[in-house]
Amino acid sequence: MIELKDVRKVYPGGVTALDSVNLSIGAGSIHGIVGRSGAGKSTLIRCLTGLEKITSGSISIDGKSMDGATGAELMKARRAIGMVFQHVNLLDSRTAAKNIAHPLEIAGVPRSQRRARVKELLELVGLSDRADNYPSQLSGGQKQRVGIARALAAEPRVLLCDEPTSALDSATTRQILQLIRSLRDRLGITVIIITHEMSVVREVCDSVSLLENGRVSRSGDLLEVISDTSSPLSKELISLPPTAALEPGQQLIEVLLAESDQVRHIGDLFALLSEHALDVRVEAGSIETIQGKQVGRLHLRPADPLSAQRALDVLSTAGLHAEITTAEEVAAEQAAAEAQEEENR
Ligand SMILES: Nc1ncnc2c1ncn2[C@@H]1O[C@H](COP(=O)(O)OP(=O)(O)OP(=O)(O)O)[C@@H](O)[C@H]1O
């Protein structure tokens, strides 16, 4: 269990990068931390790993304090956390096996033990046949596998992944995320993934925290956070494709497909609309399968205000979150999402 209580970090120049951060991450879970540029993600990583001293509050891993530790105690606490980075930074002059062995050499692990451990780690990340390859002979995904094996060398209890797939294409991203999940299942480690990619969170995380301006605005089970429609960041977890041009003032009904016992998938929603002969049409929609459940957001275009009201009543009665939005609100949301994508590039 990782616990942050009232963590505050103020940099010497006076910037408050983290403010009253409270987080509780269950042992053995995969927890995503998402935030925009400048939200405080890097600061949080540095504080978690003890590279940066927090101004106040406390951080503990399995009940052991990280914030007060110094010297040998801090080194030991840091070994509890394996780090995986966006840019793997392997040593070019060393083979995959020697890169993985590097932290073990530094820790003074005897040669024979090192060999056995490296063999085991290469198997774990599916790279046994690449042991003698140099980084220049490996693909981006294979390099990241070496990086993950290196991070696991000292048998950490926590794997802290900083944008682990941001430099990879979508197929390789999926493979790396599957690897991370299987490592969690096999080793029982806790994984924290810091990312700006909502697809990564949807694909692999059990729970998520939204970091906004140095504060955790929402934290919890992934489906619970997605169901909170009050935060723009939580809405981005299931983002809608662009809606075709709408007339000014056009009303739309925004529906969240999640956590309704009556409407469990999109087919149920269409059946409900048809059963009540609702005069609405689907303008845009995005459906994902998360933790084995269909989750989605849709924009329905009602024929007139009366149809809108009827649809709202029917959808709400069926346990769906539905609200009226306007063409202007949709356009503003899309512009903000596009600006965000541009910033992340
Ligand atoms: N060493 C520092 N000294 C002073 N201010 C800092 C320092 N490092 C970060 N900051 C400030 O703290 C805030 C949070 O920065 P941080 O780098 O943690 O955000 P981030 O979410 O990682 O952003 P990005 O995704 O762009 O890397 C920003 O306002 C940043 O300017």
From TrEMBL:
<dbReference type="InterPro" id="IPR003593">
    <property type="entry name" value="AAA+_ATPase"/>
</dbReference>
<keyword id="KW-0813">Transport</keyword>
<protein>
    <submittedName>
        <fullName>ATP-binding cassette domain-containing protein</fullName>
    </submittedName>
</protein>
<keyword id="KW-0029">Amino-acid transport</keyword>
<feature type="domain" description="ABC transporter">
    <location>
        <begin position="2"/>
        <end position="238"/>
    </location>
</feature>
<dbReference type="InterPro" id="IPR003439">
    <property type="entry name" value="ABC_transporter-like_ATP-bd"/>
</dbReference>
<keyword id="KW-0472">Membrane</keyword>
<keyword id="KW-0067">ATP-binding</keyword>
<keyword id="KW-1278">Translocase</keyword>
<keyword id="KW-1003">Cell membrane</keyword>
<keyword id="KW-0547">Nucleotide-binding</keyword>
<dbReference type="InterPro" id="IPR050086">
    <property type="entry name" value="MetN_ABC_transporter-like"/>
</dbReference>
<dbReference type="InterPro" id="IPR017871">
    <property type="entry name" value="ABC_transporter-like_CS"/>
</dbReference>
<dbReference type="Pfam" id="PF00005">
    <property type="entry name" value="ABC_tran"/>
</dbReference>
<dbReference type="GO" id="GO:0005524">
    <property type="term" value="F:ATP binding"/>
</dbReference>
<dbReference type="InterPro" id="IPR027417">
    <property type="entry name" value="P-loop_NTPase"/>
</dbReference>
<dbReference type="InterPro" id="IPR041701">
    <property type="entry name" value="MetN_ABC"/>
</dbReference>
